[in-house]
Here is the input.
Amino acid sequence: MLEPGRICLKIAGREAGKYAVIVEKIDDNFVLVTGPKSITGVKRRKCNIDHLEPTENKFDIDSKADDASIENLWKSSGLIEKLGIKVPVKRQFKKEPVQKEKQQ
Amino acid sequence: MRHSKSIKRVKIKTSGGKTVIHFKKRKPSYAVCKNCGAKLNKPKLSVKQLKNLPKTKKRPERPFPELCSKCMREYFKSKVR
Here is the structure.
């Protein structure tokens, strides 16, 4: 069930309730997981199998896929709207203050 | 409320030779999971003392801080299945 490409829900820790994609299997107990952070908020990290709950959805990914390719898969598949993921909006910095000309 | 029977009393001998009853202060109760009633790892302090603590010491970082971790996991599992 927990093979590379499977979409899971994290159920423990501060990232509980967020979706993640399995990238590769490390050993019997641990897998490498990524959100990626720009879409679901889970950063690329090692994760215990007990802290994941698999869903029905799956991506076809290469071995050791990078975050940019998985980000494109999320956008093209249309699962963001189906699962109801809130994509974080990048913070827009304020424009630099315009220097006023001194009145002589 | 201050002199109700549920509050502990202590008999104390004063310097004048009298024995007087003193009423002890109530202690705050444990924080408890709202679903199953298990004890939570939250500080057992009064509201006034909690004000001076930082936010991260008053509650866990995960979602649903008023539930225990087992109940929170089962909620998320039921959401997917």
Remarks:
- The two ends of chain B are 50 Å apart (CA to CA).
- Strands of chain B lie at 9-13, 19-23.
- The mean pLDDT of chain B is 91.
